[in-house]
User: What shape does this take?
Amino acid sequence: MSRERDSRAAAFRADHPGTRVELPYAGFDTFLKSEPADVEEAGGHDAAVLGAPYDGAVSNRPGARYGPGAVREASNWFAYLSGYKGGLSNVRTGQRVDFGALDLVDCGDVPVFPMDRAATADSIAAHVATVADRGTMPVLIGGDHYCTVPAVRGFAEGAGHDTVGLVQIDAHSDTVAESPLYGEHFHGSSTHEIGTAPHSGFEHVSQVGIRGYEGPEYFEFVEESGLSLFTIRDVEQRGIRPVMEDAVAAAAEDTDAVYVTFDIDSVDPSVAPATGTPVPGGLSAAQALSVMEVLGAHDAVGAVDLMEVAPPYDQSDDTSRLAAALLVTLLERQFAE
Assistant: This one.
């Protein structure tokens, strides 16, 4: 009986070419409707998506644990368009895009432990390392920004890199060494931990879009540490593309590869409200897309994450859609043009 049902389904699909196009709200939610795969099967592909549904290290509004699912769901639209139109032209960039040339798999969410930050960090590091060890680009969807710390460690260890540069697009510097409220390990300390790790250093870190308020000694710290800082005022005065070209060049200098971390709160909250610590005066959607266009075209970029999307604060899902578009933009520049 089951064979008969299968045969009738196959015959129906053969008679109706439209069944080859899956609607954006149908089917399983993998990123860009890519094939699901175990993390051990990530080898031989261009990139592998992992989710980190953890927000146990936030200092303000929780909700980023729901980010991976929301961003995956939002990405379905791009896969649908490509299937429906038989390929795409990116009118913004003027390039033909062939998502069929992007060999992408989705390895699901890494195991997280809501009450155990250390075990969660080890899990993220192990799964990112497994992808990188297989020569595949890790694409991590968070989750709060602390998840970047073990992800960079896993990328360095898995890929065998001695030194990894970091391009951080963010409203906040995340360079707090220790907080009397949150301790040493929270999303405000992520760049401090990366900058003091054996596989990186502040001189290999570029920060773009920083705004709002930092500690009173922040600018002195930047000068002494060798960190490359490009504030939101630099973006306004110089333009986003020159800033990004300088930022990625600085992070790539004397390093084996560059890890990109994009905190969605770098974008103005009028455009991307669904985040835990919004700050007025951020990047526009167009500037954010330009960030990923520049980074996606740079050979040194070997891993990327997108953090701090907290869907409960956005009733229209605009933030998740932008987040998906940002990752799609970087991947298409890397692999599909």
About this structure: The CA atoms of residues 274 and 315 lie 9 Å apart. Residues 67-85 form the longest helix (19 residues). The mean pLDDT is 92. The chain has ten helices and eleven strands.
